[in-house]
Specification:
Keywords: Signal. The chain has about 350 residues and is an alpha+beta fold. About 15% of the residues lie in helices and about 30% in strands. A hairpin with a 7-residue loop joins strand 6 and strand 7. The longest helix is centred in the C-terminal third of the chain and has 11 residues. It is globular.
Length: about 350
């Protein structure tokens, strides 16, 4: 999750893009300053011809071996950068003068969950709304959601992610900044479904390829902060054969009841367990085209799934967003990107890899 500082009302009237100088925090262990429509340059195109960015990984087995239980426990969110630094100015860049276009929206599409062998759910908490607390309901989400670990700027860091139904049975959906940030792709990238207390009950699934939307790849546009990974088999088994896959939903509109999950690792959380929020979402009235929800998850939760049509009894739903960012002047509120055509294209490319 990223935190964005406020700008004056006059600045907001001059355009949302002027807010680029504000500070962002990245919840997926990536805390950075500066609201952006594109921190690494001009806003990326949302046209159909735009190419999804990707990075092949040379040695998935080496990445899995790198992440010992101790390293997983010690992986922490990066420090919040101060607004007004040279780094935040570079992230602001050309995008300060360019407003992001509306997220492309086509026909609604849903993909149903595939959840073999997940077992019966425990008694669900039936808490709606919920501003943040441990998920004790059991069910499929405890297997499909997990922590993401990677190396960023020479340091170990963490995000969250989710296994989804896919043709290759090997696709993880996360946030764009959980695969690439400040122009560089993360390394040593692994997904640990069902993580708890340093344990990897279903194994460590190393990425053979990481991807993000063309807009995030080109300019790190916050409206398109969606990433994906294709993970290598573990012990000859593919990911969703082992843990199941949640469904997905694209172009389903705003103002929906939704559930968000993740592994926040910054205080008051420690990354040891799955946390959730739930509530009726809103469309961001400020600087992005994202969904918003009351939620107190912190650093480490970025990339965790948001679900529509979530069933507490089974822990299954349709993934429709990811934890992405928050505003510093609007505490305990999380925002997640709208899953439109470009998120759907990213999913299609990942599942066909």
């Amino acid at each position: 999750m990223r935190r964005i500082v406020s700008t004056s009302p006059g600045a907001r009237r001059r355009g949302a893009s002027r807010a680029v100088a504000g500070a962002l925090t990245a919840a997926g262990a990536l805390l950075v300053s500066a609201l952006q429509t594109g921190p690494a340059g001009a806003v990326g195109t949302s046209g159909a011809a735009a190419a999804t960015g990707s990075r092949p990984v040379s040695s998935p087995s080496a990445a899995a071996d790198f992440w010992t239980a101790e390293r997983m426990r010690e992986a922490t969110p990066l420090d919040l950068l101060s607004a007004g630094t040279k780094a935040s100015a570079r992230r602001s860049g050309k995008a300060a003068d360019t407003a992001s276009p509306s997220v492309r929206r086509g026909p609604e599409r849903t993909v149903r969950p595939t959840l073999p062998g997940t077992g019966a759910a425990a008694h669900a908490p039936k808490s709606f709304p919920q501003a943040g607390g441990p998920w004790t309901g059991g069910g499929a989400v405890t297997n499909t959601a997990g922590r993401v670990f990677f190396t960023y700027q020479g340091r170990t860091a963490s995000c969250s992610g989710n296994a989804v139904t896919s043709a290759n049975k090997s696709t993880v959906i996360t946030a764009g900044h959980c695969v690439k940030l400040n122009g560089a792709w993360h390394t040593d990238w692994v997904f640990v479904p069902g993580y708890h207390d340093g344990q990897a009950p279903y194994g460590k699934w190393a990425a053979s390829k990481t991807l993000s939307t063309p807009q995030w790849t080109a300019s790190e546009d916050i409206n398109y902060d969606v990433g994906a990974a294709v993970v290598a088999p573990v012990g000859g088994q593919r990911l969703t054969d082992a843990v199941g896959g949640q469904g997905l939903a694209f172009n389903t509109g705003y103002n929906k009841p939704m559930y968000a999950f993740g592994y926040p690792a910054a205080a008051p959380y420690d990354g040891s367990k799955l946390i959730y929020c739930s509530g009726n979402t809103i469309k961001d009235p400020l600087f992005s085209k994202d969904h918003g929800m009351s939620c107190n998850m912190t650093g480490g939760s970025s990339g965790g799934p948001w679900f529509t049509q979530f069933d507490e009894a089974t822990g299954a739903g349709l993934q429709s967003s990811v934890n992405s960012f928050g505003y510093t002047f609007l505490p305990n509120t999380m925002f997640g990107p709208y899953f439109g055509d470009d998120a759907e294209n990213l999913y299609n490319e990942a599942q066909s890899s």
